Amino acid sequence: xxxxxxxxxxxxxxxxxxxxxxxxxxxxxxxxxxxxxxxxxxxxxxxxxxxxxxxxxxxxxxxxxxxxxxxxxxxxxxxxxxxxxxxxxxxxxxxxxxxxxxxxxxxxxxxxxxxxxxxxxxxx
Length: 124
Known about the structure:
By secondary structure, the chain is an all-beta fold. Helix content is 0%, strand content 49%. A hairpin with a 6-residue loop joins strand 4 (32-38) and strand 5. The chain is globular and about 40 Å long.
């Protein structure tokens, strides 16, 4: 599976942005998908996950503001980000997991494949 993230950019606090992650390869619908983010000098941080069945989970810091969704017909997962804050500034990565690893969905080690990242900058 190859993942291509897009949609990042420079926005102001309070604005919205939608990230997309397009996947190539077969059986996209069978993968659990996640979004992580990373600030320079910090560890990669879990943002959101959507299972192959559509169940979602979020980091507390984005709950109520971000929404993860997937369109299996388009092999794409989305991250709708509303009410953006300066602390949301980071490089955002999408990831795919085939349910073969025994870690939490919030743990980056659960995921087998990673996209290249897209930068989101939120100005105050």
